[in-house]
Amino acid sequence: MSETSDPDPEAERERIDPEYDHQRGDGVDEAALETLLSEYAIGRDDHENAPAFVIRPDDVQAVVRLLREEAGFDHLSCLTPQQYEDRYESIIHLTKYDQRTHEVTLIVPLPTGAPVCESAAPVFRTADWHEREAFDLVGIEYAGHPNLTRILLPESWQGHPLTLEYDQDKPQVVSYTEHANPLAEDQRDEESETMFLNIGPHHPATHGVLHLETVLDGESVAAVEPDIGYLHRCEEQLCQQGTYRHQIIPYSNRWDYTANLPNEWAVARAIEDIADIEVPAYAQVLRTMATEFGRMLGHFLAVSTFALDVYGDFTAIFQYGMRDREVVQDILEDLTGQRMMFYFFRLGGVCWDLPEPRAAFVEKCRDFLDELPAKVDEYHSLLTGNEIFQRRTMGTGVLEPEVAKDYGCTGPVARASGIDYDLRQDDPYGYYDNLEWNVVTEDSCDNHARVLVRLREVEESAKIIAQCLDLLEDWPEDERTVQSNVPRTLKPDPGTETYRAVESAKGELGVYIRADGSNSPARFKIRSPCFHNLSALPEMAEGEYVADLIATLGSLDIVLGSVDR
């Protein structure tokens, strides 16, 4: 690829729209942002979800620090790298934990010959893994990054798979190097005796194939580094090769395969945004109900496998979790026709209405909901009230709120640290803002709190489902529209861009899409909640025992299909 010079600031300024709308509903005040960033912005762009500002690559830290300290943008939710014919771009998506509808996008254009961008990691710790992935897959270098190494591919891999010039058919022979003890001499005392310990790569419980590079100082964890990428399946690239209308949503079931339906909604929400597709209210109720059943699937599995992680209880807790999860799977099989890879969502709605006879299906759902309180009590008796479980989880894996925010943690992991952040309430979609339910938080910030949050969220999901069933029963028969009229072939306007997210069982699951006028996205980026939550593991585990490290890992409820994508 030929070299080009740095993007012309004057040319970037020409992108400013003089008729730009300075206020998006209840969103961020764009006029105030323009004033705040006037020293740094060299241009403007218009993303569907947020105002976008073009900045220079050597101003990244100054701008993100300014937005964090002066405007309250304390959540770096996603970083998207991409390549055009004439440039690279590093796109930073920022929002606020306490005002999710306040969003801003930073676009950093980079030349093709030397795509070098200042690192945001000194300001947001979560940018560390983001930028390593951008370097690994797209080839953008981040100046000032603390450890700019590959994260999904081996260090000896040649090339960057998501660049335009990468040869997809060229085979490679990958060599591996022996691990060294990374604990520096100045971190040891005279009596310390360190040992490098490989935990994995193996499949702990049902989380997926993971490798923890661990350094022990005596019996304590002195350092731990998650080594991911063993399950990487190029899902972003597969989605870029699929068509909007039918071929992308089915891929999403493979990301977090333990609680699939929110994944489908994340894709649908992003595509519906750039294609301006409306969803009928009745279909929104069906989506909401189905997704809450999907959330239960994830939480039942999380709790039961955590019992395996913590004290090897297969005969009791694990089988109780599987018992209840099977009932939910039966319900979803009746609703969607599939046992695991549901593909219930369609653009503009869902594939079909409740199964016939409707009354029998509703009764089956209500029977499950009626039995659920007693079943949740069983979990508390067998698990959270168990003395062994309490000793293994209380006070271990502590994640303070500000640290959780710095790493971009979301979902039960963040809410167990007292962070009231849930996209179903903070950035309402579907039918959630018409229903009565509560966001669950705990303040003890430890492994025990994360289990409590998931069990309480199962009860909140039951409230949501019960209200949805009432609505579906009473909905006039001639108004039960399950899908809007969507063109057979979708070709959003070229240059249309958006980042949309939903609340999955694991946290904020986001999708960035850039359209190029064809029926497939030019760029498709997945924001995985598991990826961010796992990145915080060293903060939670260092200084504790190996047994506590295993408990902390299990409490994160990661799925490597979501981490690696």
From TrEMBL:
Residues 315-565 form the NADH-quinone oxidoreductase subunit D domain. Keywords: Cell membrane, Membrane, Multifunctional enzyme, NAD, Ubiquinone. It is a peripheral membrane protein. It is found in: Cell membrane. Residues 10-26 have a biased composition (Basic and acidic residues). Residues 54-170 form the NADH:ubiquinone oxidoreductase 30kDa subunit domain. GO terms for cellular component: plasma membrane. Residues 1-26 are annotated as: Disordered. It catalyses: a quinone + NADH + 5 H(+)(in) = a quinol + NAD(+) + 4 H(+)(out). Pfam families: Complex1_30kDa, Complex1_49kDa. One of its GO terms (molecular function) is quinone binding. Coiled coil: none annotated. In the C-terminal section; belongs to the complex I 49 kDa subunit family. NDH-1 is composed of 13 different subunits. Subunits NuoB, CD, E, F, and G constitute the peripheral sector of the complex. This is NADH-ubiquinone oxidoreductase chain 49kDa.
